[in-house]
Specification:
The structure holds two protein chains of two kinds. By secondary structure, chain A is mostly helical. Chain A has 13 helices and no strands. By secondary structure, chain B is an alpha+beta fold. Chain B contains nine helices and 21 strands. Classes of the chains: A mainly alpha, B alpha+beta.
Chain lengths: ~270, ~375
């Protein structure tokens, strides 16, 4: 009993300590200028004001940045799910020459840091005329070996007889993929969607490199600019941070059971 | 017409593993043929080649007179019932059964009619809106059969459909599939490792061993006239008993088992056929029901059995004893005073003894 109390107490305290910066961030975003720069820090805004959000929306074009982030995150998620799922399914269930070699080659590419490939990728996209366009973010995100690997592992567990039954029923390869595999792969697809969405939403460095116009900036990039321009306005910066992380929290909370299931997948034999 | 013909069909996997060797047989229109054999004998591979799920290394397969070697499964007009049902888990029973028809763009009303008809035949009317996970094993298997029925194929293929069911359900489903065959009048090819299923369901049986067809015949002919020792031992439950021995001449032509427990004279008819094998080591086989406790005449094939185990089935019992160090099973009418350690005078019915070549296993007589 004492052990349980101690354990729960420890967990609650650790959670609170982790949450404190977020709570302060939220509180500060509803404070007037200067109200957050005090010690000890205040958590409850008094008076409660939306002036920081008003400034973000009206003066700093945050809406456009929000739309950019949302559009790109959704686009990359959908496109990457499409290609990753097809590739993962093919690697799991199809027999073709060089499959093992190709898959191992793709896996080995994971050891290459992304910073190493940034310059050649930038030059490639520049030659294609995609710099400062959405395509500069979407194309590199179209497929990734992590997603392919995740889906491949999941598809390996789908019985071959299911695919054979569909083949006998008259389904083409694409129909098998669309009508049999995709519905069965929903848990892993949702997990991958979360990874993809969060990854694109939170990505800072690559959008910073390939997007040159203010109007094309994503939220993390615009938030970084905000920090440079308004270092003495922590309330405004916190409001910008809240706008950036709210969609992420919503997506995660809505789909967390799939996320946790997806992480655990393959770890336990069923 | 939905005749299936296999001509010199071979299957060799990468690495040279030959799993099906020169298979030849014909399944006539409306016939129920069972492919049976021990695990790894090539029966499922043969079925999958008929279905188009495995490529044929060499040979030809004809369905309804058409060469189908290069046709994909969907163009062969076949339907298959898998061992693990292979039902689409995200679809309802109705959707599972309608799936193939929807792909063929069959009219909605026609789909409904066919699915309802199949559901009625299989007793699934109340389960059409359920998903497979809400069904029992037997119900799932019926859905798998229903999915095949609605397509009205030329040939039904069954790949050990009852293997995942419990014993009681297996017996029940066996009867249902047999009734279905009579009802639909369809050509069916059924794979099983269970010789009881083969014997009770098949119009004819194809027995495979190590990828080779040993015998193709009716159940009764396989039982009474096995072509070799493997078929003789595979068909029949309990299995046929075998004893090694030698044919020798001593005034008359005789057989003596290797341990001397059995020593008998051939009757004149058999003697004529077996004389050519004099001096040769052979194997004799006798079915449990042909080892009896009472016999008229031919007392020369008698012995005293030292009973080791008795399995009472009710009206009859299985009696286990040893001859020449080999365990022998006899099926006799249950006797009340029989127990472990009892000694019982037993006889081989002489006209029910089979003789096999020891090296090739081929039946000599």
């Amino acid at each position: 009993m004492i052990k349980k109390i101690f354990l729960y107490g420890f967990l609650i305290i650790t959670s609170l300590v982790t949450l404190v910066p977020f709570i302060w961030m939220l509180g500060a975003s509803f404070m007037n200028d200067g109200a957050a720069s005090v010690f000890p820090p205040i958590f409850i805004p008094d008076p409660f004001t939306l002036v920081q959000y008003k400034t973000l929306l009206e003066k700093l074009n945050i809406t456009q940045n929000f739309i950019n982030s949302l559009t790109l995150s959704i686009s990359v998620t959908i496109v990457s799910l499409f290609f990753n799922s097809m590739a993962g399914y093919a690697f799991a269930k199809y027999r073709f020459g060089g499959k093992k070699f190709l898959f191992n080659l793709l896996l080995s590419s994971m050891i290459i840091p992304s910073q190493v490939t940034m310059l050649p990728l930038f030059l490639l996209l520049k030659s294609m005329g995609f710099i400062n366009t959405y395509m500069a973010i979407i194309i590199p995100g179209m497929a990734n070996i992590f997603g392919i690997f995740l889906i491949r592992q999941y598809c390996l567990a789908i019985p071959d007889s299911l695919i054979e039954a569909a083949r006998i029923d008259g389904a083409t390869d694409f129909q098998i993929y669309r009508k049999v595999i995709l519905p069965l792969a929903i848990p892993i697809l949702v997990t991958l969607a979360i990874f993809s969405f969060l990854g694109t939403w939170n990505d800072f460095l690559w959008p910073l490199i390939v997007l040159t116009d203010d109007s094309m900036y994503t939220l993390p990039v615009s938030l970084a600019n905000l920090m440079l321009e308004h270092t003495k306005d922590p309330e405004l910066m916190m409001a910008g941070s809240v706008v950036t992380i709210i969609p992420v929290i919503i997506v995660f909370l809505a789909l967390q059971k799939y996320y946790i299931k997806g992480i655990m997948m393959g770890s336990v034999k069923e | 017409m939905a005749e299936v013909v296999l001509k010199n069909v071979n299957k060799i996997y990468e690495g040279g593993n030959k799993v099906v060797t020169d298979v030849n047989f014909t399944v006539k229109d409306k016939e129920f043929v069972v492919l049976v054999g021990p695990s790894g004998c090539g029966k499922t591979t043969t079925l999958r080649m008929i279905a188009g799920l495995e490529e044929i290394t060499s040979g030809e397969i004809f369905i309804d007179g058409n060469l189908v070697n290069n046709l994909p499964p969907k163009d062969r007009d076949i339907a298959m019932v898998f061992q693990n049902y292979a039902l689409y888990p995200h679809m309802t029973v109705y959707e599972n059964m309608a799936f193939g028809l929807k792909l063929k763009k069959v009219d909605k009303k026609e789909i409904e009619s066919r699915v309802n008809e199949a559901a009625k035949i299989l007793g699934l009317e109340n389960y059409l809106n359920r998903k497979p996970k809400a069904l029992s094993g037997g119900q799932r298997q019926r859905v798998a059969v229903g999915r095949a029925i609605v397509r009205k194929p030329k040939v039904f293929l069954f790949d050990e459909p009852l293997s995942n069911l419990d014993a009681k359900l297996r017996v029940q489903m066996r009867t249902e599939i047999s009734k279905l065959h009579k009802q639909l009048g369809a050509t069916m090819i059924y794979v099983t490792h269970d010789q009881t299923e083969a014997m009770t369901m098949g119009d004819r049986i194809v027995i495979l061993k190590d990828g080779i067809v040993n015998q193709v015949d009716t159940p009764l002919n396989l039982y009474n006239k096995p072509i070799n020792q493997f078929v003789a031992g595979f068909i029949g439950s309990p299995a046929m008993n075998f004893l090694n021995g030698t044919i020798y001449e001593s005034e008359k032509l005789r057989f003596k088992s290797s341990g001397g427990a059995i020593d008998f004279e051939f009757d004149p008819n058999h003697a004529n056929k077996m004389r050519q094998h004099a001096g040769k080591e052979i194997v004799i086989g006798i079915r449990p029901e042909n080892i009896v406790t009472e016999i008229n005449g031919f007392e020369s094939i008698s012995f005293l059995a030292n009973i080791e185990v008795i399995e009472t089935m009710g009206n009859e019992s299985f009696v286990y004893f040893q001859l020449d160090g080999v365990q022998i099973i006899s099926r006799i009418k249950s006797k009340e005073n029989l127990m472990h350690g009892s000694k019982l005078q037993m006889y081989f019915e002489p006209d029910r003894i089979y003789f096999f070549d020891k090296e090739t296993g081929k039946r000599l007589s």
